[in-house]
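tool=predict chain=A
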Amino acid sequence: MEREELAAWLRLTLTPGIGDRAARQLLAAFGLPRNIFAQPVDALGQLVSLSQARALLAPPDGLDAQLEAVSNWLASAEPPSSRHVLTLADAGYPPGLLDTADPPVLLYVQGELPAEWPAAVAVVGSRNPTPQGLLNARQFARCFAQAGLTVVSGLALGVDGAAHEGALEGAAPGSLATVAVVGTGLDRVYPRQHLELAHRIAERGLMISEYPLGTPPLAPNFPRRNRIISALTQGTLVVEAALKSGSLITAGQAAEQGKEVFAIPGSIHSPQSRGCHALLKQGAKLVESAQDVLEELHSSGHRAAARAQASTEAARQSPEDALLRALGFDPVSVDALVARTGVAPADLQAQLLEFELQGEVARLPGGLFQRISAG
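tool=predict ok
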């Protein structure tokens, strides 16, 4: 994109009071942004309010600084083809997002753009998942990637990060492993704990944002970006989620877009499972394995890989001894285990410590323990 054209697109998106909806109306009526700014105020006033029309007549504050920042960001890309500003007029704009009711006018992208946007599945969930939830996210995402699907998530702590990691582990070389849709400018990484993960995603997948460079992590931006996560995919899997969760927003937007919604059930005693259970009551599809999702998405070509992954995971399951059977997969206290097994508390604590060191059991706050499947 030439600098003058880039300046016009940035001006349109930065003009106060002109959101994506108004910008799309203007683009539909007048074509490229430079044509919009050549219109008299009365012509603009046929589509937007008088105050919006007047705002369009003058470059907004900060335009020059933003233009310089974006130009430098693009020029410093290594390799040069790894940074992009996609507009609604670009052939490379994601078609799934273009078909939604609220596509962003601009998308900032870091990573090598695919020649064709691949089949994808969103994996989202709690920022504070249980140990089993983390394993589920990573294992499901790994299996999806092995089956040839791109995994889309939001780079948040917890389930999102585990999903990106699993996709990077499972994806074939040269494939688009994973896409992170973030709520900040792409010159920032939030949370900072995922800085190294973000670099790996950009190398083997894509980082995407609708927000201008320099945008900090503002709370309203994260629920809004979730519509992009669902739009880039054929379905959304919620691994764990509380009742008030951004993951439920993503699932709701997926349903509105006509996409499949999947949820993994959990313990009735776990707050992190209540969002999934609410989705299931509303008609989401209950899944127990990655193969359930692949089959529902009619990925017949991927079923052999899913079955192979399921067989591998089954072979890694830990021995079904008495204590592990008594633990089940719900969080449980030592007192409850004493009642279930009849084993003395001191002996139970010793066995639990051994299983914890082996990665079979996780110690939770409040003196609780939870059995987890082998990772």
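The longest helix spans residues 131-146. The chain has 18 helices and twelve strands.
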